[in-house]
Every structure is written in structure tokens, then in C-alpha cells.
Specification:
With 376 residues, the protein is of the alpha/beta class. Helix content is 31%, strand content 16%. Helix 1 runs antiparallel to helix 2.
Length: 376
């Protein structure tokens, strides 16, 4: 604004000078210089004050607007009756709405039927089997705290329309081994076929989880592109005894995408390349699988048929565990898993104890009681 005013003033003075330059050239020349100097000086003093006044008026309007809706702002009282704006609208607490459908509740336990697809070593299988044995330890000494069992207790806050909570424990219901019967490149439909075929050995139970685990040399659908595991439900058929059966798949990321599906035990695929943590069972792929298995268990238990607890689109829902992705301990933030326990001998990081001296890293779960992500 001030530049335009200066330019206009000097144009007027040039016209005056041309009209009388024969008679008073010297006088007018001095006058022109003097007037332009005065104009420039006035603009330099007045324009900032004018701008400051406009800004001040805008600030006053903004503050008045904020004061009108005091329920969405917070002010701190100041001496002399003034108020200081301390923060604007706080971020609302995360909520996973209940859609009035079925959750895995009412039964004393959730059976898990494992389907091992491809080559797994005996040590790898033992790590995962011990994980499922850690949800309860009947007839044995109590597991150290925090434990796998205490982690699962977070799901007790999820209740169905009848007020029944998610089943209080998980158990291994059965195992089946398959040796690449459908090759090493599977589609999502292949996973369902494996589950349906397993019903020749496993019972059909809508309150169970049928879990397909694929070896590190098997690719499945969008594995390592958009997902580390996924869960679905079968359609009712004679094979399922007319029931929908929840099933899930988890892949071993050791050789395909450890930076995506085994973080923080591998350098992240994206973001700061911090040093990876030591895996508690000394197997990056298997320890990464345990994290995803935990996610699938919590998601299936609280939203088995896309009518339970979730936020967003049912085809890509935010669920009990995926609502807390990347959080494993207090103080977590993107790129940092949070404060974890560290084994003094191995240096491994973990947040839950299991049977047989096992240690695991489990994902935080959204707690419907506190409306927060809670780690073991």
C-alpha cells in the first residue's frame, strides 16, 4: 500500500514541474525534492501504524470469535482482567464405535487352529506354540508380569449388545502342516481354501480363529506392500455347517520385508534408519510374526464379521490393534516403539512374559474404557 502512495505523489509533482520550469525551474526543483521527501517520510511513519491498526483490529475480532465459543477453547486468567489464549480445540479422544454385531464373547476361551504353510523349523514352531500357551498357565507357576495373559485382559472392556465381554483367554485348539500344496504365490482366495479344507480335521466353530501362517518364502496377495497379515470370514456353507468362520493369515517377513513387518527388530523401510532392537526370541521373522498375530487376535475377537468395534470404512477398518500401530510402550511416537523392558543377558527388548521363560513384544490395544492405547 505504501509503495503505491509514494508513486502517486511523485507523479503529481513531475506535472507541476513541467508547467513552470521556464520561470521557476530552480525553485520548483527544490520544492519537488522537499515534497517527495516529506511524502516519503509521512508514508514511512503512517503506513506501518495503519497496518498495525488493521492487524490489531483483526486480532480483536479473532479473539472475540474465540470467546463466543468458550466450550471449544481454553483461556488462562491474567492480572488486570485480561485473558490469554492457552490452547485451541483439543484433539478428541479416539473412539472405535460398536456396530451392534457379533464379537467373540460368551465362551470361556477362543480356540485357535493353526495351519502351518511351508517350511518352519522346530524352534520357530515352538516359539509360536509357547505364545498361545502363555494366555493361561494352568498347573504351572504364575508368569512374570507383564505377561501375555495380562495383555489380553485389555480386551475385557469390549462387550457385546448383551453385555458379554470378549472371551477371557485364548488356547491352541489344533495344528495342521501343509507343504506348499498351492505353491509359493498365494492369493487371498487360496487362504480361504486352505481354511475350508482344514475343516476335515478341525471342527467348525464361529467362536474360534482359523490362522494360516506362511513361511518366509511364500508371498500372499498384498504381503509387504499394504499388509503384514489380514483377517476375513467365510461365507456360510455346508462345509462350515451354515456358519461364518473367522480366519486370518500372517506371513513371515524375514526375507521379504523385515523393515515393514518386523520393525522394531529390523531397520525401518521408511523414515529414520535407527538401529534395530534385539529380537527376544532371536528370530526377526518369527518375532515380527508374533506382533502381527497379536494384532489379528485382537481384531478378530472384537470385530470378526465387520459388525463389531471399528472406526471408518468396514472394508478398511481401524480396529483394536491397528488403531495403535507402532505403539509398544509408554512414550511411543513415530519411529520410537516406546519404553520397553530389556533382558540384562541377551539385550533383547520385550513387553510381555510368556511360559518357558519366553519374552514377546506385543502391540498396544485400544482400551474402550479409558479410550487410550494401552500396552502390556
Amino acid at each position: 500500500m505504501s509503495r503505491q502512495r509514494q508513486r502517486g505523489s511523485c507523479t503529481v509533482m513531475v506535472a507541476v514541474r513541467n508547467m513552470c520550469h521556464l520561470k521557476c525551474r530552480n525553485f520548483v526543483g527544490v520544492l519537488i525534492v522537499l515534497v517527495c521527501f516529506i511524502t516519503h517520510y509521512v508514508d514511512a511513519r503512517v503506513a506501518p501504524q495503519f497496518t498495525q491498526k488493521e492487524a490489531s483490529e483483526e486480532d480483536e475480532v479473532a479473539v472475540r470469535n474465540l470467546e463466543i465459543d468458550s466450550s471449544k477453547s481454553s483461556f488462562t486468567a491474567q492480572p488486570g482482567g485480561t485473558r490469554k489464549l492457552s490452547f485451541l480445540v483439543p484433539s478428541p479422544a479416539l473412539v472405535l464405535p460398536y456396530h451392534n454385531g457379533v464379537i467373540l464373547s460368551g465362551a470361556p476361551e477362543i480356540p485357535v487352529y493353526l495351519i502351518w504353510y511351508g517350511a518352519f523349523t522346530a524352534a520357530q514352531k515352538a516359539t509360536i506354540v509357547d505364545f498361545f500357551s502363555s494366555f493361561s498357565t494352568p498347573g504351572s507357576a504364575p508368569t512374570l508380569s507383564p505377561s501375555v495373559a495380562s495383555w489380553w485382559k485389555i480386551t475385557s472392556g469390549y462387550k457385546d449388545s448383551a453385555g458379554l465381554a470378549v472371551s477371557p483367554t485364548v488356547k491352541l485348539g489344533g495344528q495342521q502342516e501343509l507343504d506348499y500344496v498351492r505353491g509359493k504365490q498365494l492369493k487371498d482366495t487360496d487362504i480361504q481354501s486352505l481354511v475350508l479344507n482344514s475343516l476335515s480335521e478341525f471342527p467348525a466353530n464361529y467362536n474360534a480363529l482359523y490362522l494360516v501362517l506362511t513361511a518366509d518364502d511364500v508371498s500372499v496377495g498384498d504381503f509387504c506392500r499394504n499388509e503384514c497379515g489380514s483377517h476375513w470370514a467365510t461365507t456360510p456353507s455346508a462345509n462350515t455347517e451354515g456358519q461364518q468362520l473367522p480366519f486370518a493369515w500372517v506371513g513371515n517377513p524375514a526375507s521379504q520385508c523385515p523393515g515393514l513387518c518386523a520393525w522394531p527388530f529390523a531397520k525401518p523401510e521408511y523414515g529414520p534408519k535407527g538401529e534395530p532392537l534385539v529380537a527376544p526370541n532371536m528370530d526377526v521373522g518369527i518375532d515380527g510374526m508374533i506382533i502381527t498375530i497379536g494384532q489379528m487376535l485382537a481384531s478378530v475377537a472384537t470385530n470378526p464379521f465387520d459388525t463389531g468395534f471399528y472406526d471408518g470404512d468396514a472394508s478398511a477398518p481401524l480396529e483394536a490393534s491397528t488403531a495403535c500401530t507402532g505403539i509398544y510402550g509408554a512414550g511411543a511416537y513415530p519411529g520410537y516403539p516406546g519404553d520397553l523392558l530389556v533382558d540384562p543377558i541377551t539385550g533383547a527388548s520385550y513387553n510381555a512374559n510368556g511360559v518357558n521363560g519366553r519374552q514377546y513384544l506385543l502391540p498396544a490395544l485400544w482400551d474402550p474404557v479409558t479410550l487410550k492405547c494401552v500396552s502390556p
